[in-house]
Amino acid sequence: MRSDIVVLSVAFGYLALLFLIAAWGDRRAEQGRSLIGSPNVYALSIAVYCTAWTFYGSVGRAAQFGPSFLLIYLGPTLAMLMAPFLIRKMVRIASAQRITSIADFISARYGKSSGLGALVALIALIGITPYIALQLKAITVTHAVLVNYPDAGDLRLADEPFWLDKSFWVALVLAVFIILFGTRHLDASERHEGMVAAIAFESLVKLIAFLSVGIFTVFVLFQGPGDLFARVAATPELAARLGLDAVPGGATGWAGMLVLAFLAFLTLPRQFQVLVVENVDERHLARASWLFPLYLLAINLFVIPIAMAGLLLMGDADPDRFVLTLPLSADLEGLPLLVFIGGLSAATSMVIVETIALSTMVSNQLIMPLLLRTRRLHRSASGELAGWLLGIRRVAIVLILLLGYLYHALVGDAYSLVTIGLVSFAAACQFAPAMLIGMYWRGAHHRGAALGLIAGTLVWAWTLLIPGFAQSGWLDATFLEQGPFGIVWLRPYALFGLEGWDIYTHSLLWSLTANLGLLVGVSLFSRQSPLEQTQAALFAEAMHPNLLETSLWHGQTTRGELRTLLDRYLGTGTTARVFADTEPQTSDAEQPATPAQIARAEQALSGALGNASARVLINSVVRGEALDLESILSILDTTSETLEINRRLEQKSSELALASEELRAANERLRELDRLKDEFVAMVSHELRTPLTSIRAFAEILRDSDNLPEEKRVHFLDVVVKESQRLSRLIEEILDLARLESGRLTLHPQSLDLVALVRHSVDAVHHMQADRGVALEVVIEPEQAPVIGDPDRLEQVIINLLDNAGKFADQEDARVRLSLLPHKRHYRLMVEDNGPGIGEEERERVFEKFHQIQRADAAPDSRHGRPRGSGLGLPISRGIVAHLGGRLWVEEAPHLGGACLIMELPEAPPEPG
Amino acid sequence: MLSVPRRRERLLALIILAALLFTPPLVLVPDRAMAISWLPLYLFIAWGLIIGLTAWLMESPSTRKPPRE
């Protein structure tokens, strides 16, 4: 079953299936029922991150370096967590600027600089081609293993002519696929629907294939994970590979690898392609931010079990091939084939997307700018250049694949799978400073970005690429140990004497330091051109709404000229779309083009040719002040300034609203107090006048009537005395209140026994209460209640409370209950009555000055023995108690059902000695 | 209703949590705790936890924006 014919027909049959899926995806897109308009498909397409390197190499890395392989996936997990902040901004910028690749992105940010774009494209080409070679190598090797098992496959590889190498034919088929589905539109910023659908499908296939091997290994070769890990634990040298000690560079290497994977995930050209360029809807990011990490977790779940099983069962065989050799060793037929297809999926999906991304960069950033310099191009016929452009891109695709194949055929054998992958990662990381800092810092300058990129790439080449060549035996490897020309501090793996680090972290540290340092340092001392300022602002402020609506063009050109330009480069179809708002009349050729039309024309050109070339072309037909940069800059600045001012204004106005609300409340209170005061003054005058009137009346009678009977005279005098007492009590209260208010109330605190004081006060009022028909019940729990207080004032308070209770007790059967009990290092004096009680909302107001409760059941002649209060007793009492460190408040009476006033005083500290 | 700023704060906290869980010195704990390193198991559990929390944060209906149109 594993014969060459079967394997080949399955493999190429699978590729044919990809063609069908891609064609179907494109058909659906044309009908307007997009297959890829789903967040799940988007998340699956991001899984192009998992290449053949993941599929085969993870197990190899786990077998050698323990859990460090997981870092390659934890980094992207962190990056996807940040997707709602970071990638959303990238997507928004890319769709506004019609970005076609990461090179285009960086070039657009730094003033549409064509040089910078070319630099990025060149670095990507150098750094990523080996990675494509790696995928082709994986296909060749696994095919050989599959067909020749148990013989080692790769021995024969070097002797074979290339037409017998399967990966050559796979590469050729892929070239056809990419040309068919990757260059359908001239506009590279448009989505490749069919291709994305095929990639998502391939992601599913490789996941299923890998999980199948994992389940087979754990549950068929072993009796479950418990059995497997029990055997691992019994083998110390295997158990040692599970820990951090197996990770190169230890904790530093760990952190370095995490950063490397995090940055590479954002900057690898194929990741930029699927994450940003192929994003249909930025809301898909929310789903992808967890679904893609979940995919990574699933595909890595069985890596360690497979690696450990391979080490246990296969001994020292190449761990990169365990995924395939484990099922082969069990004499299975179907599973190895499924694994091969899974690996093929992983390899082809990566090659497809990477080649599209690279070919776009090569055609738009490297070749187009060169072609635009030759004048001859401007005179060509309509639509001709559109064909040229697609032709360039197609040739680029074939060349890139060929380059990858050559690299694989010539160099590939020297490198192990993982090494190439990480070297490519480190190369892609060099784009990170220019891209990420450019998105947030408006001051980043294109010269700084270019110098940083060059320096970072040189350091990368010196610390990773060239030593790799040396270790493959291409170069004399002595400089690794002794440094070039014997200069020790230039040793590639220990630059400036930094030893003991793993080579990737070491390279990343020095290259990013050089890159970042130059980017920031040079930018701080450079002045940006107006165009770069504008672009920087458009990138940094991309999340502002309505920012990109403004039209950039203020120069003059005719519609005819613009139309001819677009015709030449994009063909008549696109031109018609750009001018969709005006009827295509020949007579309007001399009409001036509107700024919106010029902007649309530039966007259309950007999508096809890249930002830098589009600008050159538009400048060639637009005369005069081509771009009103000053005004756009001022609009941008005003926008951010206005937003800031708005924010501050909003804050201020809410503060104002709050303050005015407080003022209103205070005013309300003041009015209420004023009203109370007026009432009080009226009441006081009345209260003062009543006793005064009777004193005067009785005094007049006594003066005028000489012959009054003795008993009458005594009675009258008695009345006069009583009324004077009442008068003086009232005046005393008013004075007390005045002192309390002004803080001049003097108290004489001393230790005293509250029990004795209460008994004394009760004795004082008992008689009077009994006279009024009030039944007084006294309950005193503690034997002693030491407190600190002014005895006279406290007595005044207690009497006042009892007096009040008597006044408000039930008319017919008046009962008052006084109780004293300890409560948490305090003493509580409670005075209850059986009156109507005090409503919840009234409870605090009774302590307000001048406030008097209206008794609902008060008889109109409330004078029979129960004098009305002045409304000052409770406020004064509360003032006194507060001065003594206690509290006074109202609750519902627990026993008698009326109101209950509670006075709480802290227990006095024990007397010293 | 969960307001959008609150979601941003939660996501930020989640990012910080993930960064802490995945880096030394926290990864040293399961590595050194026993005779055999529990690091792989710890990593998968922490990873699953972060994914679960992100899914909960991103998919809870109150935080999702209403669909366009």
From TrEMBL, chain A:
Signal peptide: none annotated. It comes from the Bacteria. GO terms for cellular component: membrane. Residues 683-909 form the Histidine kinase domain. The keyword Membrane applies. Residues 646-683 form a coiled coil. It is found in: Membrane. SMART domains: HATPase_c, HisKA. CDD domains: HisKA, SLC5sbd. It catalyses: ATP + protein L-histidine = ADP + protein N-phospho-L-histidine. The keyword Phosphoprotein applies. Its EC number is 2.7.13.3. It holds the Pfam family HisKA. GO terms for molecular function: phosphorelay sensor kinase activity; transmembrane transporter activity. The chain crosses the membrane at residues 6-24, 36-56, 68-87, 116-134, 167-183, 195-222, 251-269, 290-315, 335-364, 385-408, 414-437, 449-470. Its main location: membrane. It is a multi-pass membrane protein. Keywords: Coiled coil, Kinase, Membrane, Phosphoprotein, Transferase, Transmembrane, Transmembrane helix, Two-component regulatory system. Belongs to the sodium:solute symporter (SSF) (TC 2.A.21) family. This is histidine kinase. The lineage of its organism: Bacteria, Pseudomonadati, Pseudomonadota, Gammaproteobacteria, Oceanospirillales.
UniProtKB/TrEMBL annotation, chain B:
It comes from Halomonas icarae. The chain crosses the membrane at residues 38-58. Keywords: Membrane, Transmembrane, Transmembrane helix. This is Uncharacterized protein.
